[in-house]
Amino acid sequence: MAYYKNLKRYSDDQASWISKRLLALRETMRASELGRRDNKNLVIGSWNIRAFDEGTPRRDESFHYIAEIIDHFDICAVQEVKQDLEPLKRLMRLLGPNWEYFVTDVTEGGPGNRERQAFLFNKNKVKFRNLVGEITLSRDALIDGDQIARTPYFASFQAGWFRFTLVSLHVIFGTDKAKRTKEISRIAERIVKRAEAEDEVYIMIGDMNIEQRGDAIFRGLSDHGLTVPVFGATNLGGTKHYDQIAFTGERVKTKLVDSGSFDWRGDVYGDADKDAYEPIVKEAREAAGKDMYSDWDSSYQAHFASFEMSDHLPIWVEIRTDYSDEYLDQFTGATF
Questions:
Q1: DSSP β-ladder status, 42-52 and 75-81
Q2: Does any domain span residue 331?
Q3: In which band, very low, low, confident or very high, does the pLDDT at 271 lie, cut at 50, 70 and 90?
Q4: Are 19 and 68 in contact (CB under 8 A)?
Q5: pLDDT per residue over 235-245, tens digit each?
Q6: Residue 145 lies in a domain
Q7: Which CATH number fits the domain that encloses residue 125?
């Protein structure tokens, strides 16, 4: 459970404001498919948290809302963690002592965007299996002579009977869709081969900048035999299918129970609060030497709210972890 003790440090008005929205967020999540998950199963989440945390610092309340959402997962891959790790450490403190994390170094160079990738996991549900690494391409598989712009990061875990390796990635965005397709295809090809060689479930997860399910970029993922649940659009405009989770071992080692995305906008930074935030944002921007948005109505969700939370929706899958019946059943045909 997310840690709420810090609310005592705020003014009464601030604590009240945050608590009301946390309660609304919790109620919505309980009523969703995510809230009906079987606690014996594993919920794996992925969230590109926009520029976490660079530029104007996030408001105190935003950290609480982000922690509340992630706490409904058992493990979460986070993309776009920036150079300063203090915001991530603050988020971990709000998640509580049963949560742990590890994070990559900063990816250098223009395409790298000085980003990190992180895995956050609930130690009560997930065990880290002490293996981490990066996916790199052999010389003959390089894309126009280059490695993948933001090197995919992997780590191995176990939950119950389910052993798996998460491969987190943030595929470079841009007008070169062919390059995006090649990056995804090369990674998918590599992890399928590794999964077969190691008899291990591999899960590709993250912001793949896929525009439409079934397009050429998406087929770079699906053509290699990975199972890709339907998450729908994950950008705030509801038009792009950027974020995906794809896995090996369907029906044999990976039994999907449910999947989905979560839209937080009805409960936090929703349209009902737009007028209340306007003077607060104006004051904060002036204090930082910045002009107020010229069009608050159009900037409220697209800019302000997206930098407080994200310009992506979090996605998740629920996977069975108890295969004990199947294991015992294999011995029932023996005679003595």
A1: parallel
A2: no
A3: very high
A4: no
A5: 999 999 999 99
A6: yes
A7: 3.60.10.10
